[in-house]
UniProtKB/TrEMBL annotation, chains A, B:
Catalytically driven reaction(s): D-tagatofuranose 6-phosphate + ATP = D-tagatofuranose 1,6-bisphosphate + ADP + H(+)
GO biological process: carbohydrate catabolic process; D-tagatose 6-phosphate catabolic process; lactose metabolic process; small molecule metabolic process
Entry EC number(s): 2.7.1.144
Alphabetized CDD domains for the sequence: FruK_PfkB_like
Recorded family membership: Belongs to the carbohydrate kinase pfkB family.
Lineage: Bacteria, Bacillati, Bacillota, Bacilli, Lactobacillales
Protein name as catalogued: Tagatose-6-phosphate kinase
Length: 309, 309
């Protein structure tokens, strides 16, 4: 079973308004409410591609209930650890008159050490053949070092750990041989205290360092440039198709979910990378997650190159 | 039984942030989530003063569920008409650096004529001895003329109708002899196409016109000046105490709820008006609704004058 895990889930409230003026009542044009959280998105994508999975998470209140129900409505199993407090609502306000967006990202409630233990108790049940995807930032009260502990548990229990979080602690987790890391270029280079860059040879170099240190596979998204896949045997690269970007927020989650689904479905690495880049691009070209309708068409624009191996 | 009714309930999301800049992620300091809606507030106030009541409303989705659960958690009965769509989340962002507030008020989902009929079916069950409080704006799909229909039903079924909504249709409802209207000075004068004013003699004049046209009682809030009570027999006025205003949003609802509770509790009109103004002022001096702790103290600052009768 594939398990996703969201340690600070959120509801996204998208508001469209003509103007946003201080101290007056701004009556808006419209709003949209979406369940969010990077692990939640990976669950949705996996399920869209027909791959059963279970969403784990740490959340509270009616907002977390909404997120969990949204998952179950799609046929995804949920097993959240429930905390006091109300999981956050993030607000994205698009202002028509000035063509700007205001993004308000809230912190989320505090997780007690007892609740963190309850969550880790669930992880302790995972076993060989299982995959756990840990995505996104962690709630207040959850030390980023927990990713090192989870990596240790993965090695001991022999389940496959997939990490998509930008904390520097990821580097210390690498020695426990996580199955896959999915940074973007900026995250990868920040782990090596380097300036952001999208230079392929630089990105290959540092990806290979992570492989040497223990990571089994790296899936690296490079924004509008495309993506790299790196492991012991090979380095492959795919360019990104040309699209009109609407919102890139969930692109990385889409790429990861699609790639993991492709692994389950035994696609070749090249085909899998090609489909994953196309799906990520499709998500970037829509307001929410891709519906995969244009993915076949986008794939035609993507060429996969074997750089090494 | 007293029934309150909220035809466009909302959740209020209060965000505090250091700054609110366009096109970047603004990580905020804190957030608070509150159930809202003018009828919902009246229900909370009535219950705080020990008066049982039932909250009616027209709402949908997990946000309406949260509002209804918040009411039931306080021991208030609920009987909402459930619609498709998700009841709105309004956003109030306080920006520390500039000491400003951005208020984003959303529209709410559309109510079908079928659902409006379902709601009116509930109203058709009310009978002599019942009171119905209709507060706030109506959802899309609900024509403001429905207030005239409800007023007719009140007269036929002999229940007491209390109206706190600013629609001009209120004036046409007056001939069906509603029990109480609770406008503020601006609303009252707008019904007579007059400029806003807080001049007492002007406000008494137009209040008495509504009484002549059929309204049985008028409770008129006049912002920081105080409040008037007008009926066939008398006109009484109370000044407002001096307070440090935090948020006046729920003051009118507090005044109305307190006044209706005072009627149930057979307070004298003068005592009731005094307590109602104090409670409204207390709410204006706090972030949410008053807890009534400072109401006795605030009452000392309020003098009730018999202007007529």
């Amino acid at each position: 079973m594939i398990y996703t895990c969201t340690l600070n889930p959120a509801i996204d409230l998208f508001i469209e308004t003509k103007h946003l003026k201080p101290e007056v009542v701004n009556r808006t044009n419209s709003y949209d409410i979406q369940p969010n959280g990077k692990g939640v998105n990976v669950s949705f994508i996996l399920k869209q591609l027909g791959v059963d999975n279970t969403a784990l998470g740490v959340g509270g209140g009616f907002t977390s209930e909404f997120i969990e129900k949204s998952l179950r409505d799609q046929g995804i199993k949920t097993d959240f650890t429930h905390i006091d407090g109300i999981s956050r609502i993030n607000v994205f306000t698009r202002v028509i008159e000035t063509d700007t967006e205001y993004k308000e990202v809230n912190n989320g409630p505090i997780v007690s050490s007892k609740k963190l233990e309850d969550f880790l108790q669930k992880i302790s049940q995972l076993k060989i053949g299982d995959k756990l995807v840990v995505s996104g930032s962690f709630s207040k009260g959850i030390d980023p070092e927990v990713i090192i502990k989870i990596a240790q548990m993965a090695q001991q229990q022999q389940f496959d750990l997939v990490i998509d979080t930008s904390y520097p602690e990821v580097k210390a987790a690498v020695k426990y041989r996580p199955f896959l890391l999915k940074p973007n270029n900026e995250e990868l280079l920040s782990w090596f205290d380097k300036e952001d860059s999208n230079d392929l040879s630089t990105l290959v170099k540092y990806s290979k360092q992570l492989i040497q240190q223990g990571a089994k596979n790296i899936l690296l998204s490079i924004g509008s440039k495309g993506a790299l896949f790196v492991n012991q045997e090979q380095v492959i690269f795919g360019n990104a198709p040309k699209i009109k970007v609407v919102n890139t927020a969930c692109s990385g989650d889409t790429m990861l979910g699609t790639f993991l689904a492709g692994m389950e479905q035994k696609l070749s690495l090249a085909d899998n990378l090609q489909r994953s880049i196309a799906a990520a691009s499709s998500t970037a070209a829509t307001a929410g997650l891709t519906d995969f309708n244009d993915v076949k068409e986008l794939m035609k624009q993507i060429k996969i190159e074997q750089l090494e191996g």
